[in-house]
């Protein structure tokens, strides 16, 4: 199942990123596809033709898991 993450960086604007698996607490990198802004436009710091990106976790402030129509929430009490 693919997930869409809204990644907030320490000193850059946030972006949406598609990943196959959620990051674990021991991960040092996030590898994802289709980087874009929340409104679907190209992200300002990434070339438009780039489809896959790798970010170090040290640059990330926090991550939001975007809702999906494919399945249940990870937190059942939030449905």
3D shape: globular
The helix-and-strand class reads: mainly beta
Spatially, the strands of the biggest sheet line up as: 4-3-2-1-5
Contiguous uncertain segments of 5+ residues? none
Give the overall pLDDT as a whole number: 88
- The number of helices is 0
Report the count of strand segments: 5
Give the termini separation.
19 Å
The percent range for strand residues is 35-45%
Summarize the structure in words.
This protein is mostly beta strands and 79 residues long. The protein has no helices and five strands. Helices cover 0% and strands 39% of the residues. The chain has one domain (3-68). The protein has strands at residues 3-9, 15-19, 29-36, 52-56, 60-65.
Report a brief summary of the structure.
The chain has 79 residues and is mostly beta strands. The protein has strands spanning 3-9, 15-19, 29-36, 52-56, 60-65.
Which helices and strands, and how do they pair?
Elements (H helix, E strand, L loop, with lengths): L2 E7 L5 E5 L9 E8 L15 E5 L3 E6 L14
Antiparallel strand pairs: 1-2, 1-5, 2-3, 3-4
Name its key features.
mainly beta, 5-stranded antiparallel beta sheet, 0% helix
